[in-house]
Amino acid sequence: MTPFKYSTAHVKGTLSARHVVVVRAAYPADGRPATVQLLPLAAATARLPARAHLLAYPGPLLRGVTHKKSVIEYCSSRAAEAAAGGGAGGAADPLGRLLVWELLALLLRQNGVVVGTDIAELLMNNAREHEYAHAPSPRIGSRAGSGAEGERVVSPESNARPDLPLAPSAGEEGAEGEEGAEGEGAERAAATEAEALARLRDYLIYGNRQEALEWAMRCGLWGHALQLAAHGERRTRAAVAARFLAAVPAADPLHTLYAALAARMPPAATCAAEERWGDWRPHAAILLANSGARPDLERRALTQLVVTR
């Protein structure tokens, strides 16, 4: 026989919206009715740290009774409190708590229907408004500091007077001028590529894959374009491969090889006799050294290349 859960009278308490209901232990069968006490929830939670949050909570949440706007405002207030570094969790992971409350508010606004781009936009807005600071390990920092102090090396230049700069020779000045011009050009190209990559990254972060693919092809980021197209539809892969082939100069032997591998007749096979195409031998050599899936096309291209040279 299963024993009773409670073998004697016991106290029972329940938590309602604004009160704590307590039923004292008694035996009504013996003429001792149970005493019911209603304790205000504010008095019962007076010493709790989260009392203000509990009182501000717009519960109980009932369909058709609780307004969605009040719950969203509550989530927004908790998110603002987390952003300020307050709350019950103190300073422990404030950005994580902020994201949780913002996600709850987003779910309420969109009736629980969100897609990946919505959450991505939420994350990026959070990244722009709140800088991520990775705290280094104190043990690593102490080691680095002790190593830097213990490995101090006095260089010969340290004996020189700091107020007297070293005067370069005339040859060094000319070399420095050329290196400076080359360095400026390289920095400008690197900055342009970095800007293009940053915009490509922004497109992909917000889910604009087609715009990102088009931007990569326009900026010559063919590695990223081909990687994106490799995981797309067959038509997309063919279009990107065709545009990449068109970007390679037609007189380049690489264009000849890529066209043959794509089962197309290389332009050099019919125009090699013209001077602007240069030497025909690299085109023939690259076809002979790299056989593809269409050997008949390659033989025909080689035949035309030799005939029209």
From TrEMBL:
GO cellular component: a single term: endoplasmic reticulum exit site
Compartment(s): Endoplasmic reticulum
Bias-annotated ranges (Acidic residues): 173-184
Main location, first listed in the record: endoplasmic reticulum
Domain Sec16 Sec23-binding: 200-264
Matches recorded under Pfam families: TPR_Sec16
One BP annotation, GO: Golgi organization
Keywords for the protein's UniProt record, in alphabetical order: Endoplasmic reticulum, ER-Golgi transport, Transport
Disordered as annotated region, ranges: 133-190
Family note: Belongs to the SEC16 family.
Name of protein: Protein transport protein Sec16B-like
Gene: LOC106116939
